[in-house]
Design brief:
The complex is a heterodimer. Chain A is mostly helical. Chain A has a single domain, classed as ABC transporter involved in vitamin B12 uptake, BtuC (Orthogonal Bundle). In chain A, helix 2 packs parallel to helix 14. By secondary structure, chain B is of the alpha/beta class. Chain B has one domain: Rossmann fold (3-Layer(aba) Sandwich). Chain B has a six-stranded mixed beta sheet, sandwiched between helices. In chain B, strand 1 and strand 2 form a beta hairpin. In chain B, helix 4 runs antiparallel to helix 5. The chains are: A mainly alpha, B alpha/beta.
């Protein structure tokens, strides 16, 4: 046992302070990585845009309301590609990645289960059913500027999680395996319904399949505006719940003895995480892997405290998905890979390496 | 070596009854612990010891009343109650991937908003408590990697970081060998003498209960059947009728100890 050796050590700086400094450093690094990834995301593509001109254009547009004019920006086609195609796509990738990662971290914290991911409670199956129904029976319809597919997917995801929550709480409360099993039941049912609809409309198979694999290729500013309010509120709530999740991690009785109501807190976190998931899924389809693995990466970087894991997962998830989307666009250009394939193809070996390194360090 | 705080509080349990579904587990329990006193609840398995503690904390639905310095705990805001009563369960949940320092710091939760970051005062209390419990050198270690005795100290440190007036300990020595059990109980005794903390604990080891607590409450089938100084409660008769045990009670220097006896030769197969 190393306890005696450790016990006699008298550290110069309080160890807890060192951990906090390290976490702050990681958060800054992740923030910088996100910005760099987003810049790379708008530079690279079929029409390469010069980095300097991109930055100048963005600065010009950002400062225009203040009456400041920045020269040297892009014009014509270049400006249109940047502002109407690349920028909304990169922003959406960052939002979706951040939302899925922070939701996954929250689910893992609240269920105390490292295998939990944002699709656990039927959000994915519900969204899939909603999207498939619309693609099959009401193709091409839209409500104003917004396509009806994201709306249906959003509604489906909320329906899925809502049913799982209603079933789970009616059957035994918001904790432990009951809610997880309710999620499994609801997800299987909705997935079966989705398959049924899909089989009866084989003409739309390709489009449905494309949606299920996840895609950001048709991202528009309207998509960003559609999800931003929900995603923003949900992410803020989750970030504020980090400390409460740390308290919940010591068990319900001890959380109560520390003055926290475990049931209410869990419900708040689950609802916020599900809202983030539903918004992300609505505009991007089912992108796997981000919500499961990015939280683990964040945990390895900043330690186990949810107050630090949630912001780290948010930033890392955003950066990760922007890079994955970049890869999806360039490897088979001009064709595009489904981004869900890239996240798993790039992410799985990366995570395996991280696991291996972690095992060697012990 | 001082933890600010108002010292121990008087705890009164008045006519407390509780049930699991339709099974009554506690029946009209009456109990009072003086400020700075240590009452150990003893009793056979299933007599309701843990449920009594959980009811006093308000975790288990119950009838009757619990008062801390005369103030009923029902209706007390949950954070206020958490500043009065700290709890260490029999089997603490040890969270994954959390350092000992972060774990102990959870004890500061009732002293600030859930949204607020720890303040310098919080760090100071945590550092002081960890120093007192000789955990400073383990601050960076994950709680999951600590030994059983170290974990029990970490749980106590978290409870003390709450700066409570009453410590409720459910079988604080359940997972420990004799030496570590004595260390933990010595520590609790020192803390209560230095800070005047009131301690209400369950203890299944009767000899330890007799040596350390200044009062014992014997719980049997959900009722307090004897309450008083250890020498008055721990008797061979009480052990025979409530535990179905053959034992001799020996007077020790700090209180009675229990010596279990084998069945007479004729009764053994």
């Amino acid at each position: 046992m190393t306890a005696t050796a450790d016990g006699t050590r008298s550290p110069a700086a309080p160890p807890a302070a060192r951990t906090r400094h390290r976490a702050a450093l990681v958060l800054w690094a992740a923030g910088v990585a996100l910005v760099l990834a987003m810049l790379a995301g708008v530079w690279v593509g079929a029409l390469p845009l010069p980095p300097g001109a991109v930055v100048a254009t963005l600065a010009d547009r950002a400062l225009a309301p203040l009456g400041v004019d920045v020269g040297g920006g892009l014009e014509g086609t270049g400006a249109a590609v940047l502002l109407q195609l690349r920028l909304p796509r990169v922003v959406l990738a960052a939002l979706v990645g951040a939302g899925l990662a922070v939701a996954g971290a929250a689910y893992q914290g609240v269920f105390r289960n490292p295998l939990a991911d944002p699709y656990l409670l039927g959000a994915a199956a519900g969204a899939g059913l909603g999207a498939t129904l619309v693609i099959a029976y009401a193709p091409g319809t839209s409500l104003g500027p917004v396509g009806v597919v994201p709306l249906a997917a959003f509604a489906g995801a909320l329906l899925g999680v809502g049913s799982a929550l209603a079933l789970g709480t009616a059957a035994g409360g918001s904790h432990g395996p009951t809610l997880l099993l309710a999620g499994v039941a609801v997800a299987s049912f909705l997935a079966a319904a989705q398959t049924l609809v899909q089989q009866q409309n084989t003409d739309d198979l390709r489009e449905v399949y494309g949606w299920l694999l996840g895609q950001l290729g048709r991202a528009q500013w309207s998509d960003v505006l559609l999800v931003l309010p929900y995603l923003g509120v949900a992410c803020v709530v989750l970030l504020l719940c980090g400390r409460a999740l740390d308290v919940l991690a010591v068990g319900d009785d001890e959380a109560r003895s520390l003055g926290v109501h475990p049931g209410r807190m869990r419900l708040l976190v689950i609802v916020a995480a599900s809202l983030a998931t539903a918004s992300a899924v609505a505009v991007s389809g089912l992108i796997g892997f981000v919500g499961l693995v990015v939280p683990h990466i964040a945990r390895r970087l900043v330690g186990g405290s949810n107050a630090r894991v949630l912001p780290a997962a948010l930033l890392t998830g955003g950066a990760f998905l922007v890079v994955a989307d970049l890869v999806a666009r360039v490897v088979l250009a001009p064709a595009e890979l489904p981004i869900g394939v890239v996240t798993a193809f790039v992410g799985a070996p990366f995570f395996a390496g991280l696991l291996w390194l972690g095992a060697r360090r012990r | 070596m001082s933890t600010p705080g108002a010292g121990g509080a008087r705890v009164e349990v008045l006519g407390l009854s509780a049930a699991f579904g339709r099974t009554r587990v506690l029946e009209d329990v009456r109990l009072a612990v003086e400020p700075g006193g240590w009452t150990a609840v003893i009793g056979p398995n299933g007599s309701g010891k843990s449920t009594l503690l959980r009811s006093v904390l308000g975790f288990h639905p119950h009838e009757g009343m619990v008062r801390v310095d005369g103030v009923p705990t029902t209706g007390m805001p949950r954070r206020e109650r958490a500043r009065q009563l700290a709890y260490a369960p029999q089997r603490p949940v040890v969270p994954e991937g959390v350092s000992t320092a972060d774990y102990v710091a959870l004890g500061r939760t009732p002293h600030r908003s859930l949204l607020a970051a720890p303040r310098p005062g919080d760090h100071r209390v945590v550092a002081e408590v960890m120093g007192r419990l000789e955990l400073t050198g383990l601050a960076d270690r994950l709680v999951t990697t600590l030994s059983g005795g170290e974990q029990q100290r970490a749980v106590l440190a978290r409870a003390l970081a709450q700066q409570p007036r009453v410590l409720l300990l459910d079988e604080p020595t359940a997972a420990l060998d004799l030496g570590h059990a004595q260390q933990v109980l010595d520590l609790v005794d020192r803390l209560r003498r230095q800070d005047g903390l009131t301690v209400l604990s369950t203890l299944h080891d009767l000899s330890l209960a007799g040596q350390y607590a200044d009062r014992l409450a014997l719980l049997s089938a959900g009722r307090v059947v004897a309450e008083g100084r250890p020498a008055d409660v721990l008797t061979a008769d009480a052990l025979a009728s409530h535990y179905g045990a053959r034992a001799e009670v020996v007077a020790g220097p700090h209180g009675p100890a229990v010596l279990p006896l084998r069945a007479p030769d004729g009764d053994r197969g």
